[in-house]
Amino acid sequence: MKKIGIISDTHAYWDEKYLTYFEPCDEIWHAGDIGSLEVAQKLSEFRPFRAVHGNIDGGDIRRMYPEILRWRCEEVEVLMKHIGGYPGRYDASIRSAIYAKPPQLFISGHSHILKVKYDKTLGLLHINPGAAGLSGWQQERTLVRLTIEGNKFTDCEVITLGGKNKEIDR
């Protein structure tokens, strides 16, 4: 059994709440637009860390983290890409890979839209954890926690970190 913390679109913004909410997690997965090596370093020093680069990430992050990552967690095949779309509207850059060999879990970011949706056609769970940083149009900053046990998903939690205006969070 593994408890996973999923985050995206930090855009170089660091919030100590990341560590608070990821405390019970065994691993942290970042779905791109990390924005700075410092954010990646703090998360990777805290827990085992997997990440993909996003469209705003510079060469340093692109050299460290791939565009697409596919691996197994427990008995679940996971596919993660920053720009990925969502069930019924997968991005053209990943659509053929998803349809050729559907993972059980597909994680993407980019849109800043929190979405947890099951794709009945392909039998996969799609998660976009929304945006945890201050950049973008989202009003609430979010992340997701999920437990994977064998080939089952349980305890999926959406965590709201507060608004983008720092004054609101005080």
Topology:
Elements: E1 2-7, H1 17-22, E2 27-30, H2 37-46, E3 49-51, H3 59-64, E4 68-73, E5 76-81, E6 85-86, E7 89-90, H4 92-100, E8 105-107, E9 114-119, E10 124-129, E11 140-149, E12 152-163, H5 166-169
Parallel strand pairs: 1-2, 2-3, 5-8, 8-10
Antiparallel strand pairs: 1-11, 4-5, 6-7, 9-10, 11-12
Can you walk through the features of this model?
With 170 residues, the chain is of the alpha/beta class. It is 21% helix and 39% strand. Strand 1, helix 1 and strand 2 form a beta-alpha-beta unit. The strands form three sheets. A five-stranded mixed β-sheet has the order 3-2-1-11-12. The protein has a five-stranded mixed β-sheet with strand order 4-5-8-10-9, with no helix packed on it. A two-stranded antiparallel sheet has the order 6-7. The chain is globular. It contains five helices and twelve strands.
